Amino acid sequence: xxxxxxxxxxxxxAWGLLPLYWRLFQNMPAWEVLAHRVVWAFAFVALPVxxxxxxxxxxxxxxxxxSKIAVALCSVFxxxxxxxxxxxxxxxxxxxxxxxYYMNPLISILVAVAFLKERLSALQWIAIGLAGTGxxxxxxxxxxxxxxxxxLAVSFSLYGLAKKAVKVDALLxxxxxxxxxxxxxxxxxxxxQTQGTGTFTQLPVSKMLxxxxxxPATALPLFWFAKATSLLPLSLVGFIQYLSPTTSxxxxxxxFHEPFQTSQLASFAxxxxxxxxxxxxxFLGTKPAANRLAQAEHKA
Length: 300
What we know:
Blueprint: H1 2-22, H2 30-51, H3 55-61, H4 65-89, H5 94-116, H6 122-142, H7 147-164, H8 170-195, H9 205-212, H10 214-231, H11 234-240, H12 243-254, H13 262-283, H14 291-294
């Protein structure tokens, strides 16, 4: 149990601190940063796959058409999630990214209802209503939808749904998810360099080397998460997951000095209350509709 808690804390704390890493590349376009993340994440996970002689096993994971489609959708949804997150961090929207990952379990409930035809309990509907009110408050006060929060929560929930359709461990899953978009990423980076618009070669050598660490920065928290889920009850992992958006929110306010207005506080308060109700539903034995999705999900 103690070992599992350490792994869970490491994974969610690492995800929560990622804004510090991506902020180092604030002057790079988000698409270029994403392409580098894909390339170096694939390079990092390909090493243990090769060392463990798992390439044949990798092929067997997508032996049928349903699995191929599911893996392709996983790649699309997680790539979209990464892109939005990187863009938001580097455009002073870390508060909204934090809200998005607080909202994720609640959005997963709606995804389960829409696609898995699950029914909600009264407490779950109350949680959804509170979260919706929180989004409405922020929309009215800011004069726009908190699209970053919604896009992150929806893309990650859909990623979890697609993940359900294919049984694959963390290492092979990330290998497929990066390998599918790897050719596009390489072509895009080569295009930028030939056009003279690429920024990678303009970076100091120290930052070039740090960008290469996008591989382990992507893969290691995922491996720690997989280890935690094998040692801990899912309910405990679900509770520890709030360490990530909380860490990001504290970074946004106290390190990046992003404004945190009264309307945002009210919106967050409603989301937090919704999560309390959501947790109560789980504690009382009312299985949240998103539990099945949560088993397959991990942070980007």
